[in-house]
Amino acid sequence: MPPILQHLVEMTGHRDHLRLEASVLATLLQLGQSMEVRALEFFFAETQVMVRPRSWSHRGEVISSECDASVDPARGALASMPELAACIRDRFTSALRSSSGSHTLWLPVWINDKAHACLEITQHKAFSRRQRDVIMGVFQVYQNYQNLLDYSERDALTGLLNRKTFEEQFVRSAAQHQADFGSSEPSSGLQQWLAVIDIDHFKQVNDVYGHLYGDEVLILVANLLRSSFRAHDRVFRFGGEEFVVLLRSTTLEHAAQAFERFRATVEEHMFPQIGGITVSVGFTSTNDGAPVEVLGRADQALYYAKANGRNQVRFFDELLQSGALQPKISHGEIELF
Ligand SMILES: Nc1nc2c(ncn2[C@@H]2O[C@H](COP(=O)(O)OP(=O)(O)OP(=O)(O)O)[C@@H](O)[C@H]2O)c(=O)[nH]1
């Protein structure tokens, strides 16, 4: 099989965005001599769009960053790369910068009208027409496949991550936290937090206004979730009117503030036709136990919030310490729902 086809076969065998990205870079590396390739990640921070290299080639090998984007020392403002910034702004499919001895081609990866990342290819000589055609072909296969992967990981109504992806994201998020803050954790108090969020009396919305309005509320709550939490936090729809948020590397105080701020944001929001709705939130640290146990603890805190007036944020460990909740452990076994 020709090497390029072999690379494409390998590339489309991945079920993980990062591995797929590293694989497309390895494929592109085969297409030219003394070529450098990078995958750039875009994210919003410090009131502007930032960019940082997430994977890159080094002596013919592809390396991926182990650092979280928000603390990556290699991050910089997108505005410092004017050709690429203009390409993203104008929604172009590619951008080129040529100076003597260095030619760079950028290929933004568009998913649902949003560029999350960009491939960058740099070489000494100018790109020939044929080389560009082959690069674009490989890139389009990659982009189609990324879109397909993304589609399978998202909830169709809200566009949030679906339940299927939760465990993997949970494990990845814990590993990232360990890599970023492992040794400083005890003194910094930085931890991961998980919240289960449920819309109060949502059945009434459906009953009074109909399912279409119910769906609209779910979409608007999902939008509020997206805008309330940071890019490296993860927001899921678990089905129905239940959402889960994985909050990355912060203190208990900041986690409690973030969830409370979200609760207040929903309470203040005016939903068309319906008016006001509220949410209840239960949260816990992700430090101990498997994902399902952590979920169970946050769920217990949520049910406590529901049973004690709704429209409030409850912290599992605090409820446990105060005796308001008992751990769900019987005969040395964990009760799973
Ligand atoms: N519109 C719409 N409704 C949904 C969807 N999925 C689940 N539901 C509805 O969500 C409602 C959930 O109601 P309940 O679990 O009884 O809870 P609730 O009325 O929110 O009450 P509390 O949670 O106790 O405050 C049910 O009426 C479901 O039919 C969906 O995708 N769209």
Automatic annotation (TrEMBL):
First-level EC class: transferase
Give the E.C. number(s): 2.7.7.65
Q: Which InterPro entries match?
A: Diguanylate_Cyclase, GGDEF_dom, Nucleotide_cyclase, Rev_trsase/Diguanyl_cyclase
- Catalytic reactions of this protein: 2 GTP = 3',3'-c-di-GMP + 2 diphosphate
For this record, an example GO cellular component is: plasma membrane
GGDEF domain location, by residue? Answer: 190-318
One example GO MF annotation: diguanylate cyclase activity
**Entries under Pfam families matching the protein:** GGDEF
A GO biological process held by the record = negative regulation of bacterial-type flagellum-dependent cell motility
- Stored PANTHER family: DIGUANYLATE CYCLASE DGCM-RELATED (PTHR45138:SF9), REGULATORY COMPONENTS OF SENSORY TRANSDUCTION SYSTEM (PTHR45138)
Q: What is this protein called?
A: diguanylate cyclase
Provide the taxonomic classification.
Bacteria, Pseudomonadati, Pseudomonadota, Betaproteobacteria, Burkholderiales
